[in-house]
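Readers of this paper often ask what the protein records in our data store actually look like. The remainder of this section carries one protein's record, kept here as part of the documentation.

:::
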Amino acid sequence: MEAADSRVASATVEQGLSGFSSGWIVEVVMSGEDPVTSDELSAFLRAARHAGSREPGHIDLFTKSQSGASLDLTAAADQLGILYSKIGDGIDVSSDAIDDALGTGR
């Protein structure tokens, strides 16, 4: 994740389960308070999509500033035209939705 964007201060990735789909829960801490851009979100989703040795069914992505304030992802997701579900302060995106909107990125 840190390689995906220069604003990334740190990132954590955990395995998660949503219904019958296993995937990643990703929390990204970013420098600054600026909103996440569509380019940044695209880079995060591509990096998370291809992280690890297995195919994730979905990615739950959360971003916050170094001060702990949540950073909105929905405006960037809307700009990308990606299908997502809002979950708390983050978004849940299926791998198929990432592939449809962004391609595989490999």
Observations:
- Residues 83 and 97 are 6 Å apart (CA to CA).
